[in-house]
């Protein structure tokens, strides 16, 4: 963009410094200016103005032949070759000018470097680009879009969880995103249609979505923590779970139900249960974290931290280079980093494909009267913060409290189960050993399922799940009955 008159110049300055505009007083700051221009090239483009203070005041500078040679020399140090427009706007009544270096978006040539180093722009801050983001842009430029599409010749279909695959298909059929006949197809055909199997070879996305063994995929990790108070000084609960996306999502939601207060409000004839933060908002946030995170760094993960006043959900990576936080909150097209993973989650009716997940989170928080979620990134990670208060969600805090646990009456079977679990988190086998029961079918039908349906017990994974890691623990309601 040519910036060769004061009207255009004043229009740029009026917008202040940000994701696409930077002010420098003189070309004495040419090095820092070129780093920022490199960052703009790695994003959606932008302009660096020399002769403008950081407050937006035009002061100009004298432009000599040496100034022009220095600018030309520094531009040659940007690689690969980039198209840069150089403009000079004279300041009336002086011998000074404002120098503008502008770069349009050149996304198919990214990543760009200046003196061998890549830079990125986040809001009004220019910083060195993390190697993970640099590698991702290199893969995009080379035609291999992402880590999830890379084949792993050592993988076999037997390494995947067939139950999880068929569960995803059932979800897609229920959501109207897969045809009814999909359940009649064999697993190999399903994997091929999901773009997880090509020429007999499975790709990395197949493990992320449906894997069973994660020895070679340590990044398929979820960190869970409940802290006492509002700082990280003391743990109340600390867990690490490895698994595929569907298992990790189950584990995340179970952790929320374990540690966030459950309360209710009356809607017509029905009582509707709410967490401190709406579970739909938390679930959508977790789905986005698993779907859009960076996977090619072995030490990366998703983290959930619950405090007395907030929930923080963090994942490795950053927002797409072309999407600022303003665009994120104001409506945007979905640009997943992991196309194959996102496509399977969409077909399984787990993930939205139209960029509406952010709006869902915001609307859910507004519905129950808590602050909008906050979205943050530092170029290495993205984290979302949900603030809440300890008062009951959706209820009048001035209303007199109900007497807890007045209904229903606990049967002898449920009493026996509650006593066996106590304050522990136990597997079915461990509970049966403590109660002396032998018949697992009878145990699940007459003890576990009624306890879950009564809100006395929660499972780490959804009821009916065949996960070998399945365990059970008491809700606050169950602990109340146990004390009685």
UniProtKB/TrEMBL annotation:
Q: What is this protein called?
A: ATP-dependent DNA helicase RecG
Q: Which residues form the Schlafen AlbA-2 domain?
A: 17-129
Question: One GO molecular function term?
Answer: helicase activity
Tell me the InterPro entries matching this sequence: Fic-like_C, RecG_C_sf, Schlafen_AlbA_2_dom, Schlafen_AlbA_2_dom_sf
State the UniProt keywords alphabetically: ATP-binding, Helicase, Hydrolase, Nucleotide-binding
Q: Which Gene3D superfamilies match?
A: 3.30.565.60, Schlafen, AAA domain
Pfam families from the UniProt entry: Fic-like_C, HATPase_c_4, SLFN_AlbA_2
Whether Nucleotide-binding counts among this entry's keywords is yes
Species for this entry: Bacteroides faecalis
Which part of the chain is the Filamentation induced by cAMP protein Fic-like C-terminal domain? 413-475
């Amino acid at each position: 963009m040519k910036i060769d008159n004061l009207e255009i110049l004043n229009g740029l300055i009026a917008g202040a410094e940000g994701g696409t505009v930077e002010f420098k007083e003189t070309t004495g700051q040419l090095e820092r200016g070129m780093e920022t221009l490199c960052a703009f090239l790695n994003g959606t483009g932008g302009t660096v103005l020399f002769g403008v203070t950081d407050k937006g005041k035009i002061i100009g500078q004298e432009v000599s032949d040496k100034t022009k040679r220095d600018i030309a020399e520094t531009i040659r140090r940007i690689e690969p070759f980039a198209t840069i427009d150089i403009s000079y706007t004279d300041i009336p009544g002086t011998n000074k000018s404002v120098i503008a270096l502008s770069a349009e978006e050149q996304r198919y040539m990214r990543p760009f470097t200046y003196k061998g180093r890549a830079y990125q722009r986040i809001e009004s801050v220019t910083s060195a680009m993390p190697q993970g983001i640099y590698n991702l842009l290199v893969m995009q430029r080379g035609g291999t879009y992402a880590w999830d599409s890379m084949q792993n010749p050592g993988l076999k279909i037997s390494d995947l969880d067939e139950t999880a695959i068929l569960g995803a298909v059932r979800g897609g059929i229920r959501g109207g995103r897969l045809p009814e006949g999909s359940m009649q197809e064999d697993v190999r055909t399903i994997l091929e249609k999901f773009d997880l199997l090509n020429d007999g070879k499975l790709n990395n996305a197949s493990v992320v979505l449906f894997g069973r063994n994660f020895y070679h995929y340590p990044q398929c990790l979820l960190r869970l923590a409940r802290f006492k108070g509002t700082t990280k000084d003391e743990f109340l609960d600390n867990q690490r779970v490895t698994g595929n996306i569907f298992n990790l999502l189950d584990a995340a939601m179970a952790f929320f139900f374990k540690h966030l207060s459950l309360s209710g409000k009356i809607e017509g004839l029905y009582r509707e249960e709410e967490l401190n933060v709406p579970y739909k908002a938390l679930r959508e946030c977790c789905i986005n974290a698993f779907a859009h995170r960076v996977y090619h760094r072995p030490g990366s993960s998703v983290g959930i931290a619950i405090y007395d006043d907030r929930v923080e959900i963090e994942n490795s990576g950053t927002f797409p280079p072309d999407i600022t936080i303003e665009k994120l909150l104001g409506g945007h097209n979905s640009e997943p980093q992991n196309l194959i993973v996102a496509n399977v989650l969409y077909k399984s009716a787990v993930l939205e494909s139209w960029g509406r997940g952010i709006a869902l989170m915001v609307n859910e928080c507004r519905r129950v009267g808590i602050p909008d979620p906050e979205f943050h990134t530092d170029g290495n990670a993205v984290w979302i913060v949900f603030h809440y208060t300890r008062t009951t969600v959706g209820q009048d805090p001035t209303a007199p409290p109900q007497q807890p646990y007045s209904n229903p009456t606990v049967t002898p079977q449920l009493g026996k189960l509650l006593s066996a679990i106590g304050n522990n988190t136990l597997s079915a086998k461990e509970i049966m050993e403590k109660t002396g029961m032998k018949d697992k079918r009878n145990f699940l039908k007459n003890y576990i399922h009624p306890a879950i349906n009564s809100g006395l017990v929660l499972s780490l994974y959804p009821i009916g799940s065949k996960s070998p890691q399945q365990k059970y623990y008491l809700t606050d309601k169950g602990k109340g009955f146990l004390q009685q």
